[in-house]
Amino acid sequence: MATTISIFNNKGGVGKTTTIWNLAISLADKGKNVLLIDFDPQCNLSIASVGDEEFSDLLERSTKHPFGQTIRDYALPYIQRNKAGTVHTHELKTPPQSGTCHIVPGDFWLNNFSDILSVGTDVVSGSGLYRFMIPQLITEEAQTINDINYDYVLIDLPPSFNTLVRSALYCSDYFLVPCTADLFSAYCVGLIGEMLPLFVEDWEQGKKRFLASDPSDELIRTKGMPKFGGWIFNGFDTRRQPGTDIKKEVGADAAHLVAISKAIEEKMIPSLQEINTYDAVPEFIITEPVAKIEDLNVMAPDSIYQNIPIKYLSSVRPTNELRKRGQWAPNQIELMQEMDAVYDSLADYIIDNFV
Question: Which fold is adopted by the domain 3-353?
Fold first, then answer.
């Protein structure tokens, strides 16, 4: 079975889209089959990986595709008529050189879907748990129509604690938390530690009621147990130490790294360890970040604009032609290579530990 991983933080601007896209490419280039699910109404992952014009075409509604060719075409019929719709998976505009990476594109309609889902009616009562299983059901259907067993499913999420986030977490085996070098990130990881046990408590109430009427259901029995997979430090600056090749975070960025690690150790992990229905904090977890993604400055926006992940970005010309520079500077290429190595290392971390 595929290992499902949510990339989540209730804070915006922490690099979720850049992380999930480049991580997927690294996993695929290690021979893994990866499915991306864009569960964020902003649809940044779809735009980055498929292309803005191509994504606009997928949103178009027609007689053949009345709900477009996005996640909406599966979820809306399921909600309205209790009948599964059609799962559309698409190749990335820049596919991996090995392995497989497909995406189920997002849709701005997901904002409405979030309003349709009800924690009290659907989850706590146990009567609508399958409405919160959409990512899992999409995965199963995608495997069937593509005749493929995905090794990993990565879910991109909005920066909130809304029902879309609950749905994805209930379907996930692990979640990763990207953070940036700012004061609010340390607060947010503590808040995740507070909220997740409440999510699990609601699920356990609903699961108990659901299984009382249908004890043979194996899907519901095995879901609702997302484990903390570690955190990622994004968007910081470094400086080489005099006389060495060692790069260290500078000034406030170094202080934020310490603060977030401390919040993980003292607030998030203790709160998650209070969950008594499963081990939410695996033994391999450490308080330090499992990956450190340096500030890519103009490279990250250029990567998204050209729909080319960092791994392959140096092979194309930058888009800043107005500045009369038709090639990447050597230091930019070096940083791309360093960051690509970090994404590859993160992929290895997941392969080794997320089982």
Answer: Rossmann fold (3.40.50)
